[in-house]
Amino acid sequence: MIMKTLPDFWFEPRPWIDGQWHPGGETVTVRNPATAEKIAEVSRVDASTVALAIEGAVKAQRTWREVSAVERGMVLKRTAALLLERKDAFARLLTAEQGKPYAQAVGEVEYAASFFQWFGEEARRVYGRIAAHPEAGREFFIEHKPAGVAGLITPWNFPLAQGAKKVAAALAAGCSAVWKPAELTPLIALATGPLMREAGLPDGVLQIVPGRGSVVGAMLAEHPAVRVLSLTGSTATGSALMTAAAPGIKRLSLELGGNAPFIVLPDADLDFVAEQLTRLKLFVSGQVCVTANRVFVHADAEAELAEKLAAKIRAARLGNGLAEGIEAGPLIHRQACTEIGELVAQAVTAGAEIVAENRSYESDATLREGSFFPPTLLIGVRDEMRVAQEEIFGPVIPLLRYTSVSDAVRRANDTPYGLASYVYGRDLAQCRAVASAIEAGIVGVNEWRPLKAEIPFGGIKHSGIGAEGGEEGIREFLETQVISMPKPVIAS
Ligand code: ADP
Question: How far away, in angstroms, is 77 Cα from ligand 1 center?
């Protein structure tokens, strides 16, 4: 049974500015990637609307920063509660515009709510300190203050959760925010505007401006009132944003691309690995910056792991994410299918072998216009192949053979990226040693989804700057001021 596509709550497909729907400029059609069915025509912002949104945010920030931290936190916690209350409606909208299976969309709504809850709690834990002064009779006060207006730019793979991480941290810190969602998935972001208003957020503190990345990104980067830019996107976009932000010396928080190694140690339980790796690679159809991109397996275990993975891939249920029991939906658009097809073809030409594919969606006439890509298992992949060098962003599992663990670790680190990685094995001491040797922001040991609101998540090398979540996440939106002054004395 296919669930009803559009939710029952109310929002309009146009910019959300100062607590109201604002007339937009050119429109763009949002389609369900599973069926190509039109969901909405969304108005994009033009230059004058972006300026208006930033000016409104500047005004709102003056009062929002003075609201007590406890009260700011309450608004965020109420947002979390409302999201959970309307989980079903939000999840349906997410599945319709992004394509991920409904169960994964529900997971994303819960994950997003966990960030509103977490930063709702963190808002009251922004501690300054008093430091000893080297001269007698003086003291230092060290305070953390909201940085100002934050420009938030998010991608289409987790259109709600990536926004929640940034919005919640920025607002908890006392910043106001201008959020530019991805071109392909603006609806769930727009639905968040009235939800936060209902939770008690004053108008103008969160402006939502659907529009083109290069255009709105440049405007946010150029406007002198925007003090922090937070982006989740590709490394190329991060680099472009850094360049655009350079003249204005803006603070940057960048969560960029990855090329995650997944190291299967010689003693690993291969049934467990096959189950976890398949879940990881089918999750959002592999369109995840932390998904496994290179699976290193010992030469002696390769054939057995390939057999187990092949069985799981062939058995996976693919289709419209709004249908029951679906494990993987479509890719975001046809172009993505073409590009991933090229990566696989290049690998095969260079000597890799496809051992399993799942094209079961081809027999469903309702999905004919959708952008599906077959989950694919490749063996015999070598480091120099494009499929191992580039972020695949699709449900392709490339197995790379190794003969010594230290060599596998060296090869795992031989990439400009350093976002996520995974280590699977029975000997936890060996897992710990390998995890420590890997250059990445996060390592999952016998765990395929280690990201949580409680921990800082961020990349090293070309994978980014800064962190989201944890006690670190709020710091991206705070500036430090020191007041050096004489110690008051009792007036006699
Ligand atoms: P992906 O490859 O995942 O689509 P992108 O980096 O292209 O990632 O997009 C992530 C976000 O960055 C989107 O909201 C997109 O509109 C925005 N974006 C794209 N180009 C730029 C740019 N030059 N400056 C700022 N934001 C941009």
Answer: 29
Q: What is the model's pLDDT at position 1?
A: 45
pLDDT digits (tens, 9 = 90+) for 421-452: 999 999 999 999 999 999 999 999 999 999 99
Q: Would you identify the CATH topology of the domain 16-256+463-481?
A: Aldehyde Dehydrogenase; Chain A, domain 1 (3.40.605)
Answer whether 241 contacts ligand 1 (Cβ < 6 A): yes
CB atoms within 10 A of CB 390: 17
Catalytic residue chosen out of the listed positions 97, 122, 175, 289: 289
Domain 260-445 has CATH 3.30.365.10: no
Is 472 among the catalytic positions? no
Beta-strand ranges (E) seen in 189-257 are 206-208, 226-232, 251-255
- CB-hemisphere CA count at 13 Å for 9? 21
* Separation of CA 155 and ligand 1 centre (Å): 7
Nearest-atom index, ligand 1, CA of 180: 14
- What pTM, to 2 d.p., does this model score? 0.97
**Per-domain residue ranges of the chain:** 16-256+463-481, 260-445
Whole-number Å distance, alpha carbon 126 to ligand 1 midpoint, is 31
Has residue 388 got a pLDDT over 60? yes
Q: Is position 289 annotated as part of the catalytic site?
A: yes
**16-256+463-481 against 260-445: fold identical:** no
Tell me what the pLDDT averaged over the chain comes to. 96
Cα Rg for the chain, rounded, in angstroms? 24
Pairing of strands 251-255, 149-153: unpaired
For a pocket test of ligand 1, which of 160, 237, 332, 462 has the largest count of ligand atoms closer than 8 A to its C-beta? 237
DSSP single-letter state for residue 372: -
